[in-house]
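Thread title: Can someone regenerate the structure for this chain?

I was given the following input by a collaborator and told the matching structure tokens would be attached. They weren't. Posting the sequence so someone can regenerate them.
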Amino acid sequence: MSTAARVAKNPKPRHIPQRTCVACRRTMAKRELVRVVRTPSGAVEVDTTGKKSGRGAYLCRAQECWRLALKKERLDHALKAKLTAEEKEALLEYVRSSPIAGEDK
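Best answer:
Regenerated them for you:
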């Protein structure tokens, strides 16, 4: 039996990368979470593409997770950086303006 015939006969399920929310610690598919990145220059920003260079941390799309991560400094710990008040406010503004942000988990 050829390799092509075996592949067609037993297709493997596609691997879905899993990540953990730093606030609620739930594991979900990478695409369902929002990545926050500390760039090599030290700036902290939301990475909508998921491909920016730097140290990343993932959060649920729920506003409560964002508030919790910033209040308890879980995002600071995950990014290994102390977030400034301006950076925290910019992240909260992002989640407030995001149409996908809700109160559900």
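The chain has a mean pLDDT of 89.
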